[in-house]
């Protein structure tokens, strides 16, 4: 079984649920991908980091990976660790939902690993409409980073790719909804 096949199996076992749910976008759906169940699993986290690193390792000039807390946190960490193990270290960063209420008041954690103008990739566990990705892109750019594109564990194939691409960024998905449900 390949690493991708094994990760798909873990996603199906731990993250896919057939039930009615309200998504972050406000939309109703009859299924749910809880990516954190996979990305926080020992093997699932490792495989996620490995496949995300594979997705970005040949992108010209990538200097960081990160996204909105909480979904991006384990992905950014796993990708960064795998990048180190592969001899091409890429630091991770986390974008807070609101600025830190004390100390530095920072929006972005991991700042000392990224100089202004650093080229970064936004990572997500699930993309539906692309709203969270676009929010992360905006905040990262406001913090002086240059966003190249987005990598997601699962693209629900509900307009996110089109919305992200309409803003001038690319989206790579490890899996689409169709691939998971095949």
From TrEMBL:
Residue span(s) of domain Phosphoribosyltransferase: 85-162
Catalysed conversion reaction: orotidine 5'-phosphate + diphosphate = orotate + 5-phospho-alpha-D-ribose 1-diphosphate
Enzyme Commission number: 2.4.2.10
Keywords of the record: Glycosyltransferase, Magnesium, Pyrimidine biosynthesis, Transferase
Pathway: Pyrimidine metabolism; UMP biosynthesis via de novo pathway; UMP from orotate: step 1/2
Superkingdom: Bacteria
GO molecular function: magnesium ion binding; orotate phosphoribosyltransferase activity
Pfam families: Pribosyltran
Binding, orotate: 128, 156
Function: Catalyzes the transfer of a ribosyl phosphate group from 5-phosphoribose 1-diphosphate to orotate, leading to the formation of orotidine monophosphate (OMP).
Family statement drawn from the similarity comment of this UniProt entry: Belongs to the purine/pyrimidine phosphoribosyltransferase family. PyrE subfamily.
Record-given protein name: Orotate phosphoribosyltransferase
Source organism of the structure: Geomonas paludis
